[in-house]
Amino acid sequence: AQSVAQPEDQVNVAEGNPLTVKCTYSVSGNPYLFWYVQYPNRGLQFLLKYITGDNLVKGSYGFEAEFNKSQTSFHLKKPSALVSDSALYFCAVRDRANSGYALNFGKGTSLLVTP
Amino acid sequence: DADVTQTPRNRITKTGKRIMLECSQTKGHDRMYWYRQDPGLGLRLIYYSFDVKDINKGEISDGYSVSRQAQAKFSLSLESAIPNQTALYFCATSDWDRGLPGELFFGEGSRLTVL
Predict the structure, then answer these.
(1) Alpha-carbon distance A7 to A25, whole Å?
(2) Where is pLDDT greater, at A33 or A99?
(3) Residue of B25, B29, B36, B43 for testing the chain A interface, max A β-carbons within 10 Å
(4) Residue A89 pLDDT exceeds 80
(5) For residue B108, what are the contacts with CB-CB under 8 A and spacing of at least 6?
(6) CB contacts < 8 Å between A and B, how many?
(7) For B70, what's the count of Cα atoms within 13 Å in the CB-facing half-sphere?
(8) pLDDT value at position A68?
(9) Strand locations in A1-115, DSSP E?
(10) Residue among A35, A52, A57, A55 at smallest CA distance from A44
């Protein structure tokens, strides 16, 4: 069963505007949630993670994510988008019920920031 | 030098050929993984290894095999390649984080085309 969902294939935002990339999860027990970014022809780079503690997690390049247990969501946000933020973004969850705690990835959301 | 190195970066082969993708890491991590990326499908886990003597199948292991030659080396083999194995393959490593696998560190990927 899919344990993480990214409902948007693509998100378009103008430079300088706030951006949100959505992620919802479905796992048993406490979720361990991650965001990764992939630039063209590159591997995935870690942005941030939620393990426990504050629901608002800050990460690399000015990104942050908000864990919402009641809505089972972990949306990625940035207050002011840059053209250089254009990339493919993946949400991932560590699922204890699956594959020995390996990460399950969403299908990815392509972010396009226009000048 | 990259912490996680994959070779080859690009490979074109024919149906029925045996292919090996190699991964080496200098991060000193025990855990290593092979993922496959297909457009619109995100990343799917093929195999993972928690140490040299531990190999586990992931979500899509059929048609693949792996070998953990040393802590730093984890290779993926396609015994008889078929066209639907055309994809971008990623090796990743992880350390421990509070008793569980931490975030993944990815190689740059190996693009395989099977004709």
Answers:
(1) 11
(2) A33
(3) B43
(4) yes
(5) A41, A42, A43, B2, B4, B5, B6, B9
(6) 60
(7) 8
(8) 94
(9) 4-5, 10-14, 19-21, 24-25, 32-38, 44-50, 56-58, 64-68, 73-78, 87-94, 103-105, 109-114
(10) A35
CB-count burial class (<10 Å; 0-12, 13-18, 19+) for A107: buried
Per the listing, tokens 């965001």 go with A35
Report pLDDT for A90.
96
Nearest to A107 among B41, B58, B90 (CB): B41
Mean pLDDT, consecutive 10-residue segments, chain B of 115 residues? Answer: 90 96 95 92 91 90 95 96 96 82 89 96
Residue A2: pLDDT band with limits 50, 70, 90? low
Residue B4 sits at the chain A interface (C-beta within 8 Å): yes
Interface test with chain B among A25, A48, A103, by most B beta carbons within 10 Å: A103
Minimal C-alpha gap between B91 and chain A (Å): 9
CA distance A98 to A95: 5
How far is CA A50 from each of CA A7, A32, A63, A85, rounded to the nearest angstrom?
20, 6, 13, 21
